[in-house]
Amino acid sequence: MELLGGRVGVFLHLDPERILSHGKFTRFRVVKDVRQPLLRGSTVQLKDGKMGWIYYKYERLPWFCYHCGRLGHVAKDCTHVADDDLLNPALYQYGEELRASPLRRPSVMQPDKPID
């Protein structure tokens, strides 16, 4: 997992409670150079030796450019794109699918009155 985190940025730590949670995802924290584009995913070698693709999703992701994948501006203000490409969102390589939905924390109900 450190290798995967290292592809996104500088690996900090792995959330031990979210290691392949329900077989769907693993959660790790990295320091990301915001001048570089977000990664949409990467290839990994699966247990059977075949190559597979994993998708990255980002928590607390601020606004970012759907064309170049960089933080801090939106596509209409992008300097990494030709003006003609701005008119066609079908050419954008990034989108809302990079946003992770917020994790729900378990809630503990406290009774109003002590139970006898």
From TrEMBL:
<dbReference type="InterPro" id="IPR036875">
    <property type="entry name" value="Znf_CCHC_sf"/>
</dbReference>
<feature type="domain" description="CCHC-type">
    <location>
        <begin position="65"/>
        <end position="78"/>
    </location>
</feature>
<keyword id="KW-0862">Zinc</keyword>
<dbReference type="InterPro" id="IPR025836">
    <property type="entry name" value="Zn_knuckle_CX2CX4HX4C"/>
</dbReference>
<dbReference type="GO" id="GO:0008270">
    <property type="term" value="F:zinc ion binding"/>
</dbReference>
<dbReference type="GO" id="GO:0003676">
    <property type="term" value="F:nucleic acid binding"/>
</dbReference>
<keyword id="KW-0863">Zinc-finger</keyword>
<protein>
    <recommendedName>
        <fullName>CCHC-type domain-containing protein</fullName>
    </recommendedName>
</protein>
<dbReference type="InterPro" id="IPR001878">
    <property type="entry name" value="Znf_CCHC"/>
</dbReference>
<dbReference type="Pfam" id="PF14392">
    <property type="entry name" value="zf-CCHC_4"/>
</dbReference>
<keyword id="KW-0479">Metal-binding</keyword>
<dbReference type="InterPro" id="IPR040256">
    <property type="entry name" value="At4g02000-like"/>
</dbReference>
